[in-house]
Fold each of these.
Amino acid sequence: PVHRTPEIQEARLKLPILAEEQVVMEAINDNPIVIICGETGSGKTTQVPQFLYEAGYASSGGIIGITEPRRVAAVSMSQRVAKEMNLSHRVVSYQIRYEGNVTDETRIKFMTDGVLLKEIQKDFLLSKYKVIIIDEAHERSMYTDILIGLLSRIVPLRHKKGLPLKLIIMSATLRVEDFTANTRLFSVQPPVIQVDARQFPVTVHFNKKTPLDDYSGECFRKVCKIHRMLPAGGILVFLTGQAEVHSLCRRLRKAFPYQKNSTAGNAVETTLPKIDLNNYSVVPPDEGDEDRDFDSDDDAAGSDLDLDLGDGDSGEDEKSDSSLPLYVLPLYSLLAPEKQAKVFRPPPPGTRLCVVATNVAETSLTIPGIKYVVDSGREKRRCYDRITGVSSFRVSWVCQASAEQRAGRAGRTEPGHCYRLYSSAVFMDFEKFSAPEITKRPVEDLILQMKALNIEKVINFPFPTPPPTEALAAAEELLIALGALKELKQQLAAKLSCPISPLGRVMATFPVAPRYAKMLALSRQHQCLPYTITIVSAMTVRELFEELDRPAGSEEEAAQLKGRRARFLQMQKVWAGQGPMQKLGDLMVMLGAVGACEYSGCTREFCEQNGLRHKAMLEIRRLRGQLTTAVNSVCRDAGLYVDPKMEPPTEAQVTYLRQIVLAGLGDHLARRVQAEELLDDKWRNAYKTALLEDPVFIHPSSVLFKELPEFVVYQEIVETTKLYMKGVSAVEPE
Ligand code: ADP
Ligand code: MG
């Protein structure tokens, strides 16, 4: 029996899915596979696990597993469900790549989709689970897709064994044909339960004009207008990245300062932002409105006209107004968890909440009390070349489905408004849905995992949407080059059916990309393992260093940033080591930075002083621990442990490390263009790679930027103004 507090019980009863509990549970009892569709915020993630628990699916030792594509969601949802059910974290737990709080008592387990895929490797039938819920299936993350494919086979196998497993797929949109209409995936079409969205109407206001570049400024002006003119209610702004989020937060805080200790903070709750009634009359929106209204663009009629703020170029002044405190919070995935959690708490009395977010706030987290959404219509995506793996971050238009999700965030608790900073004509040109991740990125890590599951003919796998054949071929070729797959005779290899090699099996046990796994598998000699583990952890976690080139909000901040940048450059030289060590380049810097940080106890102060991202350093620490355990278990005599006082490597070890790095990143080799080859000026200081026609360059942030060694290997190529190599190391190929 579950004992919920009266407050929780009351909040639950408001969720649309509660009304469907019986329908949902009957469908699950009667069918092995069920699909549940329901608007974000309808209660799928927090309630369905509770229904199952109360129906006895976790009794007699079984576990209810829920997968999430995002780490933030796995952690925060497990905490929420534990709280709602009044159960301890020992019973409602989470596991993400680097950490978790799962115990023997765990009955409801939230995890990232990648974690469950690893578990399938250890126990293909997932025997300890009674139910698997695949959440946020509409996001079509690569691991979610692959799990659905695998589970389509595991469910019948478990049935045959007389130990049935239930599979529940949950999606925020109704677009599930890729799952339902795919007979290779599910030969019997699973029932789809639709949870009626008890959303309040959201009125959508399009801009007449579409700002082409300064959408951030446009967001600022729109928020100012909403805050000055419209009734109480939280504002949620969608921007594309961390730097933009911070810069808008700064501007808004300056315009509407909120002092923690000001009297406003102690005032009674009713001091809402003032509305200037002389300039403005507020008419409440018509509650009877049907769903959402997309037609208010050029239309001058309608009861919402008074809330239509028009396009924002009417000279909003930026002078600060402390009589209207705005409680501004940033939200993005790299933000420290304790800062992320702030958005769930009510804002201080007398202030209005304004969350400036990236698309993490789109479907996985529901922020309470949002009445106004300001949508820039853009998102930042990491785009890959499927074959070369070259990636670039591009700001592009969202798809229509995302724009609708964003708008929906305004109608959770009362009727709301969404201000789209683009015209309805531009919206009509958006793609309807974005393509599944699996079709857009290199798949070598996925293919290695699949081969480790003895799925040799990956091309026959029941993918919800298959990756392009050329991406499969590129992955298979790389894995053969790394020695992870046994090369078969030519004509067989062309059919993409090479089996895994013993080395590949070892590599597949490390939770890192195949290139890095190869480096780990090679590091037994010369006591290099602790160093390789550290370098691989740092390369996997990414974004170790704080962005110190960011634009400053004030002169004071600019001076401070300049000082920190100078300090960082100094430290970078120290970490890069001396003499032959310097040849390891950026990887030596990573090693040195992690070593120094651990030596100092990995404190926040040390990180701040030295330009390191504290959250990244903590993740590296966890991943080092995890990789150390993984290495010890394949190589029983290694006896490794994570040493916080790790000595720097010797010269001989550095030489050996460079060979290891070359073995792992061998296909990422680049040769400096020689003077006699310099026919075109665009090749000045450039490198030539095997995969690309175009010149590539060492990124200016690299310690080897001035050095220009003849041969280098790189961690990745990122395209900005040019093709830049990052994570660069000098090598001497044989
Ligand atoms: P869905 O999965 O259908 O999108 P959820 O189950 O995530 O819906 O959310 C249901 C409700 O639970 C939402 O109103 C949301 O605001 C609330 N909720 C979720 N997490 C928290 C939290 N940490 N604190 C307070 N409320 C929360
Ligand atoms: Mg959810």
Amino acid sequence: NKSHIRRQHLKHNFSSVAVEPAEIDWDNLGFKFMPTDYMYMTKFYEGENFSKCELQRFGNIHLNPCAGILNYGQGLFEGLKAYRKHDGNILLFRPNENGLRLRMGAERMCMPCPSVEQFVEAVNATVLANERWIPPAGKGSLYIRPMLMGSGAVLGLAPSPEYTFLIYVSPVGNYFKEGLAPINLIVETVTPRATPGGTGGVKTIGNYAAVLKAQIAAKENGFSDVLYLDSVHKRYVEEVSACNVFVVKDHAISTPAINGTILPGITRKSIIDVARSQGFQVEERLVTVDELLDADEVFCTGTAVVISPVGSITYLGKRVTYESGGVGAVSQQLYSSLTNLQMGLAEDKLDWIVAL
Ligand code: COI
């Protein structure tokens, strides 16, 4: 049958076993890669005009073994999501912000970059081409992963002579295996995630491989993930491996200020605005580890994690729990406000939603 033939074809080209959307258990998606029909890919050179829509069947890509991304880590990625609304419309959340952040990162990593308009157009085209992989309303989202990489050969350390802009997508559900239940974090006191003057504030690929060692150790000890402190004083809260962090105390909300070592999350920025519009006092400032441990509620934000309440934090062998391990009222309220907006269930007063 058709699905069998398709699977044979896909097996030949891809490492993962392919499924058809009709075979997906939408209630148990998790955050695992699943190949879809199309990807966007275009190559370009410094100073050259970026070409238009380049969709092709999803599949492995060819790279020169000497490519800048493989040898010297000249690469950036983005993450955003498309939601299916109950009326069938497809909604994107602030895609222009991802386009802008990619441009900031490209400047730091010495790469030419598509304009924000070109970025958004490419995202839209990729989502529409893969429409059948967008989960039904309320069952998850289509995670969109744009990548910008130095794909030309460079042996001596230098910017790559050629660049590739690529977008692939995958249907996803909850990021953490805990689902929507609070996560348990451990504070890393030895290895920092980022250092002043480094690349912690841009979404470069190397920032993520660098945290795997601590993450694996944390998971082996039963924790969901790692929370990092600043590299100089080892006293100020920075972020979690794949998300930003917020603390709530006496109804006031604080999050580490963007200072070069913290990833400027689009969910982070959106939550600050949503919380302020609901009358919360929100401060972007230095947050000490003592304040973190003394907080009423702690939650994480990110495109992949959305808003994840934190149930406990372990620091130097001492475990502090929040809200008796349950979801705090502020985290719950902000989670509902944000997801209602993203799924088209609340009025989009700030013009953040793009309907395709
Ligand atoms: C995202 O939240 O989109 C990210 O890029 C984090 C990633 C490590 C899953």
